[in-house]
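One thing: mind reviewing this one?
=====
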Amino acid sequence: MPLYSSHADNCSRPIGNYWHTTVELEPDLALALEGDQRAEFAVVGGGFTGLNAALQLATEHGADVALLEAGNIGWGASGRNGGFCCVGGSKRSLSDLVRHFGHKETFRFLDCQMRAIDHVRNFLDTHHIDANTHSDGELSLAHRKKAMHGLEADAAQLRKALGIDVTLHSKDELEKMGVAGPEFFGGATLNRGFALNPLKYTLGLTKAAKTAGARIHARSSVIRIDRKEGGWCLETAQGRLHARRLIMVTNSYLEEDLPGAPFSALKGRLLPVLSSVLVTRPLTAEEMAAQGWTSHQMSYDTRRLLNYFRLMPDGRFLFGMRGGMNTTPRDDMEMGQDIMLDFFRIFPTWSDVEVPHIWSGFVCMASDLNPVGPLDGAPDAYTALAYHGNEVAMGSLCGVAVADMAAGAVTSSDLPVVLRGPLKRFPIPRLRKTYLKVAYRWYGLRDEKL
């Protein structure tokens, strides 16, 4: 039984996504798969990971690759996220990573995150893509006075053990930086990362992959995958794709009950979690000054159920939050009301500001880590997914990594241990949303009371 209603996977429904107002979508950019076709590599999923994989296979390995995307390009998470190209990729804390994997492997994982940010920046520069980038690093804001102790501890550990510098800020210093609000009691700046328009990045990847020779097929939802002729046969509503090797990078948008070994290998191992985003109309200079927020630094608070936000180059303000247990038209409306309440509580002087865009989508969680590697039980098949809300950077670099692995250029041992599989199954997978509900209540209590 699906975790969420069919509304979640309805690729024809409008999303309310602000990013779609910033681009002119080209109807012929990616046509649906038709008839019987063949390729050396089949990539399932047209987000950051799949597009980077297709581009890497075509450019660095000279491979014949075809990518299948269920919706239009940018319909899923890669075209509707908050646009934070920053460190992250595992739900584990820094101290937890060190405790489980040691300083060396933790440093390798953090270095991978830094390289992931550089990878995205280099792509945008090389291909001359104007993705409305801004922000010099990221700012973590203590939502309670005691939360500042955690930021101080993380900063000390990053400096001492890993040689990574973090700048701490008092509440008064934040206000001088143009970062003021009733729930900000201090902060920490990591001078890595930047913000961008994710849909412009996604479309730029699509065009680059096509130019390199990859075949990109939108509106080509895979309904069955069979093992045939020593390879794979992927069936869509309008055609079939026969491929020697398979890369599954659907992330949260996986219909895990579909027939075929690759779907079975992922069944019960992922937990899609809803995240909502709003974007205001452009704010005036007077409105920014009244709130005390004039900074363009991408920011987030220290809640486990975090809020993330940034003032964009055109003066609009983006605000996101976790939450929600289902997505239907009614649930989406209720989530819209919830995010407005959170936004106005944290930025009270903007309570009369119009909010023309509210939408939601899935973040992909796993029970443990975010593996890149062979897909269990499926020969010549590979996967990369579950970035825990940090898919812009890590999803991009993992696309390159899984492409190199599928092409035989690297093995799992070349990756940090944190990124190696296998992907574990949730205990009693049908109870995944029950686990999530319990976790939300516990995190909410920890965030506000403990």
Summary: The mean pLDDT is 93. The longest strand covers residues 35-44.
